[in-house]
Design a protein that fits this description.
The protein is α/β, with parallel strands linked by helices and 569 residues long. The chain is 25% helix and 15% strand. The protein has 15 helices and 17 strands. The strands form five sheets. Strands 1, 2, 3, 4, 5, 6 and 17 form a seven-stranded mixed β-sheet that branches. Strands 10-11-9-13 form a four-stranded antiparallel β-sheet. It has a two-stranded antiparallel ribbon with strand order 7-14. α1 packs parallel to α4. The longest helix is centred in the middle third of the chain and has 24 residues. The two termini are 42 Å apart.
């Protein structure tokens, strides 16, 4: 069966940015069709299992109100539905997972439930029509306009063609850019093109950040849940032999799964911590973060823990639940710019790599349970994602195709050592969002560190200019995820959770603005009108001390929540 619909705004991909875009458009009274290839909405925050990674001031400023609403709602969901300890319930900076990567680590299903609640009134009113299990297969273009997108149902193969006035690409890989032959960039640009101090001498389309297929596990000491030795185990095992946490910090240069002295890792310390921890997580400024206290020991188990048993009343949760994302970043192939069969093979290899990591931790890592080899009590949790093996619904994608935009944000705009940038970043008159994440590029640096650590403290927080959302040619397609006018380098900060949310929200508002101001698609063969530009504004503008405060915090050796140092996503 082949159905045909029309929408004012079609959003392809219910990623974190896609959901944000749909909410922005629906709240403004527009009708939206939102499609998603999987059965999950929320992308990296839910289906991919990646706890929020945010800047250190997120509790106080540096994000939009809708993003703050999402964060508040996650905490409130736990307060409504879970038997929390008295301390956890009273903690305004409550962190359900007490993971040291973020001030707010939570279970993927809770994130999905909160997004469902945020969408619910608009779904009931018919302003948003959500179509799960649909992937884009054809983009119908007419000159500089996208007329329609055809999607195939992944459960049966039926086709759905949606014609729309505006189309937003919120897929994690910028899939509409390739399907519609829309001008875009893949991989790393050359220094001569961008002028960035960190750019390569020569462009390399296949230089894309690795992707990771996360897996959820808990721990049952004394039990044996060792999985079968996966295919290609020997291929990946050598990379696990020197397994460390995701940081260049000396404190993590050890193959220790659980923190030293954690007598009972099934119920390690909860979210409250010391008073200094709470102040830091709530956005304390003007000083370096507190030294790591017991609840935030540097260890792989706590790195992206999404459920901390100590936060709940005794008898509620038997064990912490954590996401394994240390040592299983797949760099053996890429997903963009290669044939579909090769991309699919790389996805499958990334799955096997993560299963190999589970087996390694269960059977071989030293020191292991009782001082021996491995922790056989590590147990994959299929229920966390409703998958057979505990792997996330989708791999975590760090880098996408990116539009050729009217304006491309380069490192020069906020590199503190560039001429004219020592006192402040470039100020964009058309800024539509602000972001506070440093550049985080998972590649080796000539100095011997990762690029992330070698660039630490050298960048201001960033703004998202409107021009980065405008393709150079196509008039009615907007990016709403990691596919904006950024470079391989600056993608390292714009790809993170709060920035992706702001990108989607800005794209949703822009589409509404164009519709509200009656900017019609041109008739076939006619000259296309210019895309309407909203007046310069910054809906989530920072307070006056935003840039100095960020500079002061980033210029130190640690920018962190509760003492975590140099975390890398």
């Amino acid at each position: 069966m082949h159905r045909e619909w029309h929408a004012e705004i079609l959003i392809v991909g219910a990623s974190f940015g896609g959901v944000s875009a749909a909410l922005a458009a629906a709240r403004a009274g527009r009708r939206v069709v939102l499609t998603e290839e999987t059965g999950w909405i929320g992308g990296q925050a839910t289906a991919q299992g990646v706890p929020l990674d945010e800047h250190p001031w997120i509790e106080r400023y540096g994000s939009s109100e809708s993003y703050r609403q999402f964060r508040r709602s996650v905490r409130e969901y736990y307060r409504r539905n879970y038997p929390l300890t008295e301390q956890s319930r009273a903690d305004r900076a409550f962190n359900p997972g007490a993971g040291w990567v973020s001030a707010l680590c939570f279970e993927p299903k809770v994130g999905r439930a909160v997004l469902d609640e945020m969408l619910a009134p608009y779904l009931s009113a018919g302003r948003i029509l959500l179509m799960l299990h649909h992937r884009p297969v054809v983009v119908q273009a007419d000159g500089d306009l996208i007329r329609a997108v055809t999607l195939a149902c992944t459960r049966g193969g039926d086709l759905l063609t949606v014609a729309a006035d505006y189309v937003l690409d919120a897929t994690d890989l910028g899939e509409l850019l390739e399907l519609g032959k829309i001008e875009h960039v893949i991989g790393a640009e050359a220094h001569d093109e961008t002028g960035e101090p960190t750019a390569l001498e020569q462009a390399d389309p296949l230089r894309q950040q690795g992707f990771t297929h996360l897996v959820a596990v808990d721990y049952r000491p004394g039990e044996d849940h060792t999985i079968e030795r996966p295919l290609d185990y020997d291929r990946f095992r050598a990379g696990f032999a020197s397994l460390v946490g995701m940081s260049d910090d000396a404190a993590l240069r050890q193959r220790r799964l659980f923190g030293a002295g954690m007598a009972d890792p099934t119920r390690s310390a909860g979210s409250v911590g010391t008073a200094e921890d709470r102040e830091t997580r709530a956005g304390g400024l003007g000083r370096r973060a507190a030294a790591p206290s017991r609840p935030y020991q540097f260890c792989i188990w706590n790195f992206r823990r999404v459920l901390c048993a100590a936060n709940f009343l005794p008898g509620t949760v038997d064990s912490d639940v954590t996401m394994l994302m240390s040592g299983n970043e797949y760099r053996g192939g890429v997903l963009c710019g290669v044939p579909a069969a090769e991309a699919a093979a790389n996805r499958e290899a990334a799955r096997r790599m993560s299963l190999a990591l589970v087996h390694f931790l269960q059977a071989e890592v030293e020191p292991g349970y009782g001082g021996g080899r491995g922790f056989p009590g590590i147990r994959p949790r299929p229920d966390v994602f409703d998958t057979a093996d505990g792997l996330a619904v989708q791999p975590y994608i760090r880098e996408s195709r990116r539009i050729r935009a009217e304006y491309t944000v380069t490192e020069r705009s906020f590199h503190r050592e560039q001429p004219g940038r020592q006192a402040a970043p470039e100020r964009f008159p058309d800024a539509v969002a602000v972001g506070g994440y440093r550049i985080d590029v998972h590649e080796p640096h000539p100095a011997g560190q990762s690029y992330t650590l070698s660039l630490h403290g050298k960048h201001w927080p960033q703004q998202l200019p409107l021009g980065a959302l405008l393709p150079i040619r196509v008039d009615n397609l907007l990016p709403a995820s990691k596919n904006i006018g950024a470079t391989h380098v600056t993608n390292g900060c714009f790809r993170l959770h709060p920035n992706e949310w702001s990108t989607g929200e800005a794209a949703g508002h822009l589409a509404v603005f164009c519709l509200d101001h009656a900017v019609p698609p041109p008739a076939p063969g006619g000259a296309p009108p210019p895309v309407a530009r909203p007046p310069p504004r910054a809906p989530c503008a920072p307070p006056p001390n935003w840039w100095p405060a960020c500079n002061g915090a980033w210029s130190g050796t640690a920018w962190n929540w509760s003492g975590r140092t140099g975390s890398r996503r």
